[in-house]
């Protein structure tokens, strides 16, 4: 036994390599006729410590050899059923966050959203397949709030490519922020405040908008600030709200809607041949957006259902489906079921609290 090993034992600072050397030295001593207790006493080591070291080498942590599966684990048939559902033509292009509520609307429950993700990950079928960039936080300087449909609209214009380089078609889109429903759209060959004025007149007539009922938010583009449009809005009694110049983040709902539409699988790879083709595509994708698309911000109901006031009953039905599923197999829930709350308010650019705490001395001075 070396001097460093002897000092390490005395100071109780023993590393695994020194421990092996000490055990080997004591083994050689006992084989030569020395008593184990005397050998340990000589170097200042407890015999029980030596026995614990020897036992640790012989034993293996039983937790690493656990093979018993949890009692509520999905069976192979259930996992195969989940993969079959997610690979079907109806759900192959949707994430589990969209699949689960759609199945619940049909009165079906197979597993939680996290279980869908876990099964897909184990089967190497969970992969981000979309081309958009990750979401970024937005600073919203102007505060507006909607508590019902037809209170707060947002509108914007986006480009659609044409066959002629440098020329575009222009999609005008009006969105109800509370329900996320596209209440008006049209494709024109140019940007014009007159087109927007005609569209808002038609929307007010179809939706039955009264003076002072709606606030219309937009960015600072020239069609949005055109004299014809502003005069029309004043005549209809519609309040206006504008984003800051050159800052699209102040109008996030319209930008998000454009992004959703343009990243659809049906979006054409080649430019549109003419104005009629562009309008036909927009008509198809707007119908999907309003009637079929489950919007995540409104608890995965369609904009048309929320605009018509049908979302409360649908969300209550989902809660009932989850209650029945938990009653049928309670071992799969460690806590409460997933809740589907009704979204009562929708905010556009809510103000952040910037109030500073005032010291007591400052209050007295004031």
From TrEMBL:
The residue ranges of the Integrase catalytic domain are 145-311
BP-aspect Gene Ontology terms: DNA integration
UniProt protein name: ISRin3 putative transposase
Q: Name the Gene3D superfamilies for this protein.
A: Ribonuclease H-like superfamily/Ribonuclease H
Pfam families assigned:
rve
Q: Which PANTHER family match?
A: TRANSPOSASE INSF FOR INSERTION SEQUENCE IS3B-RELATED, TRANSPOSASE INSO FOR INSERTION SEQUENCE ELEMENT IS911B-RELATED
Q: Which top-level group of life is the source organism from? A: Bacteria
Please give the Gene Ontology molecular function terms for this protein: nucleic acid binding
